[in-house]
Amino acid sequence: MDLSFATADSPAIPLHVIEQDALDAWLADQPAHVASWVRAAGFAAGLGTTLLVPDAKGALTMALAGYGTAEARARGRFHLATAAMQLPEGIYAFHGLDPARAEEEALGWLLARYAFDRYRDQSPATAKLVAPKGVDAARLQVIAAGEALTRDLINTPAADMGPADLEAACATLASAHGASIDVIRGDALLEQNFAMIHTVGRAAAQAPRLIDMRWGETGPTLTLVGKGVCFDTGGLNLKPAAGMGVMKKDMGGAATVLGLAQMIMTLNLPLRLRVLVPAVENAVAGNAFRPGDILTARNGLTVEINNTDAEGRLVLADALAYAAEDQPDMLVSMATLTGAARVAVGPDLAPYFTDDPDLASALDGAAAHVADPVWRLPFHTPYEAMIEPGIADLDNAPKGGFAGTITAALFLRRFAGGTRYAHFDIYGWNPDSKPARPKGGIGMGARALLQALPKALNL
């Protein structure tokens, strides 16, 4: 899988990007045989359409990519990734593309070349692209590689991506970038006051663990916490079969922060990075935790368990409390946390929470720039009462079903220790193939956060 651009001096086939209402004007400027060929083929420059144009001897001389209308383009992103999938093997160069769209379309072309081929041969796009002028090709290649790491980790089933395998992936990443890594496993979690991580994962075949990776020696401090529930049966509150169908993706938060960490380290951003991944499997066994149990978190708060399927916030709580002890300049959690988030915004948007308006402004602007949509939801303080059961400090699964993604975020905020904090409740899964985004694991929010970091941390 080659997620790189062709070299700038490579002989390239011109790929003319043509908007629907500009087709007639473009044809008027072409030789008669080209115009005749295009008209005879019925090419109308509709979004997602392509056409190969031969010369008089039948050799490929150019290709056309329909760019549709502004209204059609507003309904999606990475439109030219479709051309990357449709065109034959070769090297292509954009012609006529609005420079403002060049970065998005160039990244989409790279991402169209991704394929998850661990278990069978796949057929990714074979057409290569010369990076458009003015685009930071090296940065886009780094971003594509980080996204590929995230996708690979999510797509790998739990039999090959349990807590030990996730730890191995972290170790490989750390080794590649000269980062340090420390792991607390099994009963050592109890000894070092990570009772909730231990409790959630103790019934599984592979021991629960907390993975702690650090990189960088100067600059502001950024801590990323990713939910690493490698498979979620729901525990004793067992999910129905349909609900377990894609639960290999329940470590999507961990996969996303690892992909983002790879981007940060490869780009050598001037900051000190810490990545915390509580890696567990929420399984069913005689020692599984039960509804009604009360657990004590690392920061001393007690939590009543009213649903063992609301386990992600438990492992994140211990990791967040640990992170907050260092008081980082910014603390971010990413998790496939609640079905309520999907009901609210669907699978394509990454909802996030923060009390910091400057960080929200940076994220919103960055997301629009890099075509990585996010949506801010509120830490609505009046709902705090909904997560307070009375018998303990907190309830892990408030009854009633209202505002489930907000109450989960409020729960996590109790463990962030007053730090500058943002929480992303991502889906981590693309249910239907779209341009540059095949069905399966997907990164969400990472590119927006990467783009926002210079402004957010004054880098």
TrEMBL record:
GO terms for cellular component: cytoplasm. Residues 307-314 form the Cytosol aminopeptidase domain. Keywords: Aminopeptidase, Hydrolase, Manganese, Protease. Gene3D superfamilies: Leucine Aminopeptidase, subunit E, domain 1, Zn peptidases. Pfam families: Peptidase_M17 (PF00883), Peptidase_M17_N_1 (PF21337). GO terms for molecular function: manganese ion binding; metalloaminopeptidase activity. This is Leucyl aminopeptidase family protein.
